[in-house]
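User: Run a structure prediction on this.
Assistant: Running it now.
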Amino acid sequence: MQEIFPSTDVIAAELAALRTAAALVARGASPRVVLESVARHVAVAVEADFLEILQFDEHDRPRVIAAWASRGDRVLALERWALDDDRAARRIATTRAPTREDAGDGGPDATSENAGERHGIRSSVGVPVLLQDRVWGAIFVHSIGDQPLPDQTEARLLGLTQLIASAVANSHANTAVEELAADQAALLRVAELVARGAPPVEVFAAVAEELGRVVNAAGAKMLRYEKDGMATFLASWGSLEAGIPAGTRLSITGTSVTGQIFATGRPARVDDYGTATGAIAALQRSAGMRSAVGAPIVVDGGLWGALVVGTVAADPLPPHTEQRITKFADLVAVALSNLEARVALHALADEQAALRRVATVVARGEWDVTSATIVREVALLLEVDGSVLLRYEADETVTVLAAWGSPDMTDYVGQRLAFDGDNPAAQVWRTRRPARQEDFGDARGTLAELTRREGITCVVASPVIVENQLWGAVVVVSTEPEKLPADTEERIGQFTELVATAIGNMKSRLDLIESRARIVQTADLTRRRFERDLHDGIQQRLVSIALDLHGARESLPPELERSRAKLSGVATQLADALEDLRELSRGLHPAILSEGGLEPAIRSLARRSPVPASVRLEHLPRLADPVEVAAYYVVSESLANAGKHAHAALVDITVRCHDGRLEVTVVDDGAGGADPSLGTGLTGLVDRVEALGGSISVRSPKGQGTRLIATLPITG
């Protein structure tokens, strides 16, 4: 027979649940922590095998937010499921009344499958948790024994739902107050930036950072929608910045948060980016984003852009995140409400993106690509018809280095044109300042005539200054009757600074290469002179002394055998010293290289190598002396390292000419671990090869041998 009144143990468990909940709420614990603790005490109080506390979302889908079981392996780890799939949860949501289901009781909807039946549940009781007169969620307790849950289970649970509701309300209230304070502080910091006239870039970056921090997201972004169906990302913050950095332009097609906001003009969320489509979703997914929430930025009644936050956590962002983001979006909209400010911000965002693209190309040091990128980006950003990059020459001409747009001036690229007469290029040459011309009717000179012939109506030129010297000019042109904007000169100036940087970097690199080449050349000449002095001086004298010594020994009578033996010993030592001198001479500058070329010199190195070496030489012609010397020393140093440091058993040498370059490959089977950065002889090889415009690579994993490849341009 079931007990009518609960035992003292049950009452103690109920009191323990109340005390625990009160203590956790007082300490400011999150609702989830409070409910997980309460779940354990409630399950004991009602003598259930396991228990779940469910919360219904805005779509009436329940989610298990706390659970307890007498056996840990029986806790249900359920994701969200539709109410139509669970009759018990559906009844609580619709009737706001307790519900019970016992196996085989023939209750309502007994033929439909309940989620619990898939887990061997014998008896289930659920009661609603009401919060502010709405069904916030439910408590379900289950039994897997032979007997159903006691009849008074519903009443006991109803008595405890107020505890659950209070815990949720108090925790939510504490959380809401903390979030409100954090939101207000963050908004105030951004508002202060706007009030003191901070640059838009700084404001945008602050918005993204403050927003990301207050909602505890892994990343936050501010973007602007374009007329061409693209989105420009103006600011990016957090670990997800690597996915879409500021300045990026992407198509808004797809089901990302960005795309949904553009389509609806309303806040949007994606709780699972695994199924989202489009370029933006793909990039965000590759950066690790799991879910995101965003809100629109509406300026003067029109959709201007959006703020988006994302997370890499498994759980989606809280349901009220949209409201918090909207507060920031409203503040941004206020800052953008002035039309003139908005136009300036558009231009600045475009400018930043263009400058970022140019800077990226400049950093790679590829001049042909850099010059073409600069003229294209300048023309597109300033919305002019065309642009040209000029370099001033000593004979008062300009060389056209790159051209883009209309009229098509690519035929002039590489040509040198006189800039005499009336034209902006001549004005820049004289003043080193930006110049413009809007009337070429009476203008004189080659460039003026070209301008009239091509139908150009306005030209603006800005100087490129490198190391305080006038180097060239960036020129933009228009064929329209309207004048180019007054700030055109200033906006071109930012690109000319990048041009100057690119040229300065290139000049520094050329100066370094030339300096290295001079050092290598001087060292080679010194070596050669020293080798010649040794050969023609000391070496010849020693040979002469050896001959005299041999003659003196032969002139001694036979009875002076001891003296003859001593002279023979001296002659042997002298021969050894002479051979050492010849070896030293070959190391300074091998005569065989000068006389026979690279092929016999390398074969000679292989024969004298302390490590057995195989040689493959493919049709080597005589090459320029610096190239042959560099290749010789690459092989010589590699063989020395293979014997001295790598303790190799075999070396393979391959030298071949192809595509206008000499390639030297040396592979050994030694200990590996060679590193040119450690200041070994390899460092000198790198300097020697790069001084000739070549390159050298070393792959030397420990225990796997060394592969060295040197590539040299064939200059003769």
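Residues 488-555 form the longest helix (68 residues).
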